Amino acid sequence: MNETIIFMLKLTPRQLKTLDFIRQKGRATNQEIKEYLRDISRITVVRELNTLLTLGLIKKAGQGRNVYYQEKVTSEFCRYFDVEKYFSQGPDERKLAFERFNFGIFKNLKGIFSPKELAELKKLNLKYQQRIKKLSAAALKKEFERLTIELSWKSSQIEGNTYSLIDTEVLIKEHKEAAGHKKEEAIMILNHKKALDYILNKVSDFKHLTLGKIDNIHQLLVKDLGVEKGLRQRIVGIVGTRYKPLDNQHQIKEIMEKTIRLINNLKDPFTKTLLAILLISYIQPFADGNKRTARLLGNAILLAYQACPLSFRSVNEADYKKAIIIFYEQNNLCFFKELFIEQFKFAVNNYF
Fold this sequence. Notes:
Number of domains: 2
Order of helices and strands: HHHEEHHHHHHHHHHH
Shape: globular
Structural class: mainly alpha
Largest sheet: 2 strands, antiparallel
Strand order of the largest sheet: 1-2
Helix content: 55-70%
Strand content: under 5%
């Protein structure tokens, strides 16, 4: 089974219990698992283990009577847990691993994508690169216009904007605002277009990030929306979670610079992009517009490395928000990684 969709699968209670036991023990034999689960046959244990092996959640080692099982993780940030069960509790009931910014988060941010996942992303991107070489300048411009409309619509929708995709198209192409909507909604959408235009005019600039370049994207996205410019100087709360970001401007600047160094030192554009989106969202460096800035910055990095940009058109807004909250509260990025891979596949198969 494709290893990029395991996080969204719902394991049975017994499979979860088996995985938790293996995780707690570090390594476990068939017999130890059978004794722990109680009153089930050896055949049933083998079947459950085979399911977990197929899903890529555990690995098998040893030979003969010395066979044992261990949890299989490409990164400490990618451990499986039940998303549906996690969000069956409200923000005040959930057990958070981190209620405040985790300064140790940078220690193990490696091995985010498995070799198989990276190979899949590179293969998809080669298809994109080959296709755009065959497009005329006019056709390429038209495709970027389509992606701009759909990205502006979906990114705004994730933030609560109520414009439809058709109304967004009319707004961007004909500068006609939709009736029954707030002025700010139109501004938010048009600001996305301005930010993407800025990125497209300076594509190569985003191979190397600076705080100034990120701030430029943010300023374009929040222009005329009454949002404070520059790094925030006050506490900010986030809807739907108890997680509290940093509240000290000096620390925010320090962590942003550390994030930028981390991303600039990475070679793989997909890891650069994913971490840029997640870490900017996590740090919340600005008073508002953080996740919008993160998504546009992610596209700036992809474009700088001749990779297909994302529109996020087919992403479910609730899933996107859950994936971000899981990263806030648990520092687990596996669900977001799967959404990222699915959106990259979608972009390659639907644009250009």
